Amino acid sequence: MRILLVEDDAEVARFVRRGLQEAGHTVEHAANGRDGLFLAASEQFDMLVLDRMLPGGVDGVRLVETLRAQGNRTPVLFLSALSAVDERVKGLKAGGDDYLVKPFAFAELVARVEALARRPTVDAPATRLKIADLEMDLLSRTVTRGGKRIEIQPREFRLLEHLMRHAGQVVTRTMLLEKVWDYHFDPQTNVIDVHVSRLRQKVDRGFDKPLIHTVRNAGYMIRAEP
What we know:
alpha/beta; Rossmann fold; Arc Repressor Mutant, subunit A; 2 domains; 5-stranded parallel sheet; 4-stranded antiparallel sheet; OmpR/PhoB-type_DNA-bd; Response regulator transcription factor; phosphoprotein; WH-like_DNA-bd_sf
């Protein structure tokens, strides 16, 4: 396999690189997050092994989040001295596939690398979302319902995309604040209600069956069924 190792500790990097090469892998090394992100985004690798805490203005979590947002599905194994459960969860939620706490036995590192390599290849991410006669093209950034083009603003597009990706599920206001507005606090405004109202006017007005529903005291849901 061709592996990208992103590790700022020179001694750890030499140790891991040498061991992976002895195990038969080709290893490229980046010493900071910025260079690691550039290599991961511009070249083809079979796996990424990266530290959580990285210099260069891009830490491991941000690096993986950026790659996943770009559609890069390369398996990622985090190496980190941060052993707390919430830190491991943070790395996995960012898009990491496995998490190994330092210090570690090299035999375990190789075993985890090989285990990730055996996982089935992930299908390419969907480029179209569809609920009943409502369709969203993620590449052209267009929305249609019943074959008719719906003109929506960028924020409305993100809102609708999040609802469609969670079709049939209640999406809370807190979730929308974090995923659509990038707020990690409650701004104490009715911005969500206003945008949902506008989106509902564009998506449901003129159609017999509404798709966007308010779930009292919970949030919102998009579904085809009444």
